[in-house]
Structures are given as structure tokens and as C-alpha cells.
Design a protein that fits this description.
It comes from Herbaspirillum aquaticum. This is Amino acid ABC transporter substrate-binding protein. The protein has 255 residues and is an alpha/beta fold. 37% of the residues lie in helices and 23% in strands. The protein folds into 2 domains: 123 residues, Periplasmic binding protein-like II (D-Maltodextrin-Binding Protein, domain 2, 3-Layer(aba) Sandwich); 88 residues, 3-Layer(aba) Sandwich (D-Maltodextrin-Binding Protein, domain 2). The strands form 4 sheets. A 5-stranded mixed beta sheet has the order 5-1-6-15-7.
Amino acid sequence: MKPFHCLFKHLLGSVALAATLGAVPAMAQSSYNVGATSTGVPFTFLDIKTNKLQGMMVDTVTAVGNKAGFSVNIQQTPFAALIPSLTGNKIDIIAAAMLKTEARAQIVDFSDPVYSYGEGLFVNAQDTKSYKTLDDLKGEIVGAQVGTVFVDALNKKGGFKEVKTYDSVADMMRDVGLGRIKAGFGDRPIVAYQLSQGANPQVRLVKEYQSTLMGDVCLVIRKADPKLMERLNKAISELKADGTLARIVEQWKLN
């Protein structure tokens, strides 16, 4: 049996080692689950050839992860379920065409902007009328994608016969093309890209329409995670400085 003073010395050494290890900062997380939608071309969409989510925001969050030293696991998530999935810890980061708003900022935190844009208006291709503002659509049935800022904005504006909501821009375009609603509102880059790809020849983008809901697209995380936010913003700053972010925007024809 060891003498008491030897045991005591060994115990003190163990305590000191534990204290030293406890003082070492925890390793930064090396992988994050990222929520993205399958219907937000060209920001996020499902490539049917590879069955993987692709797009500008997928490339952006991947580049941010590479720069910041973490990998990303992209998970398909409906737009309306993005924030609930984030706050419910099912995902760690949102990478989608989600505009920063005061209401959303009360629930989640937004990184520095990676892109900025406003709403786009589209009508039936046979409708040649000029629509410059929302006032030009008074008394009409219009549509917007559920979960977007456009729904609240249109309802707040008022003056419409009805504001219908849709799960996707494609569904909304279908109803505009069929004459079921007068006009649809969506993220202008998404609408412009889809129409340029021949998504629905029965619909046209109203080029003279003046966007009123300009906003920033950011990466989104849960509140009270300053360390992750610092990693994201540092990486975004570096990607802007070295031209990587600009190249991603150019690749997806968003400039």
C-alpha cells in the first residue's frame, strides 16, 4: 500500500490536470446541418439529375464552411419550416432566399448580407398593361409564397380582392398563367431566372414594376451563438475580399 503522502500527491496531480484540461477552450464545431429549400431556383433547388440541393446559397454556405473550417450537411426543408426547424434544433444554419426582417430578427440571428434584392411582379403573358406600383392592382386577386415577407406586406397594403398563398413560385405561376389570379409576387431573382429558363411561357415578369421590399439575404442561425456568428461573418468578409462571393453570384446569373 502506498504511503498517504504519495496518494495525496497523486490526487493533487490529478486535480491539477483536470483543472488544466478544463481551461482549454472547447474545439469549434466541425460540421453543421444546413436547411435549404428545393423550390428557390437559383438560390436553392433540387437537381433531379443528382438528387442533391444546389444553387447560389448552397454554394455560398459551402464556401463559408470551407473558409471557416467546418463542413455542411445540406437538408431539404420547406421554406415555411426553415425557422421552426432552426429554433427546434433540427438544423443549425439556414441558407435560403430569406430576407432579413425585424420580425424574423426577433426570433433568429442574421449574418452579414451575402446578397440583396426585392420582390418581382409577374402577370399573364397576354396582359400587356403596365404595372409600376401595388396601387395598379387594386381590387385584384394576387398571390405570394407562404412564409415570405410578401404575404404580410400585401395584406398590410390592402386594397386587393384577395391575397392567395402558395407553397411554391411554380404553383403561383401556374395560376397566373391559367388566369385564376391576376398577378403573383415572388423573389425577383428567382422569378426572373425561372422565366428565363422557360419555366412558364404563359407568364411574364413586369420589368417596369418598382420593388418596394428591398432586403438582404443572409445566413441565419439561432440566437445567442456569438461564436458561430463570428465565424460566419469573418468567412463572409474574406469571401467578399477575395472575389469568391462575386464569382458565385455571377455563376448563378444574379448580377
